[in-house]
Amino acid sequence: MTADDSYDRIDDEDYPAYTMGRAAEMLGTTQGFLRAIGEARLVTPLRSPGGHRRYSRYQLRIAARARELVDQGTPIEAACRIIILEDQLEEAQRINAEYRRAAERPNPPATPETDGAGRSSQAS
Q1: Are 46 and 38 in contact (CB under 8 A)?
Q2: Which of 108, 114, 15 is nearest to 59 (CA)?
């Protein structure tokens, strides 16, 4: 690994930079909470060569959302399911927006070789 590789990882949301202890400390929670959301498959931390769990900033944001729901009285399993469904909804909305943008694009102008929708008007 070069120094340049290390600098690239500073901004990498998915780089597993945080140990379980540090992640729990940053979130103000316990290591047991992180294990529980791992068991619920909300986050799957990578493992260090020694087998220790390592978390990315992206995973910490998800864990923070879970903690917020649990602190409001939501059971941990339900909190994990809510977050998964929120993520699926966000992805579906993104895909729908892409489809809408594609549908709103004007068709290319008709030429003698095409019918206005980009299809050949010449018989095969």
Answers
A1: no
A2: 15
The answer to whether the CB of 7 falls within 8 A of the CB of 13 is no
| Separation of alpha carbons 37 and 77, rounded Å | 8
pTM exceeds cut of 0.85: no
**What DSSP letter does each residue of 8-58 carry, written as one string?**
HHHT-TT---EEHHHHHHHHTS-HHHHHHHHHTTS---EE-TTS-EEE-HH
- Which residue has 């059971």 as its token pair? 75
pLDDT tens, residue order, the chain (124 aa): 454 555 666 677 788 889 999 999 999 999 999 999 999 999 999 998 899 999 999 999 999 999 999 999 999 999 999 999 999 999 999 999 999 999 998 876 666 665 555 565 555 4
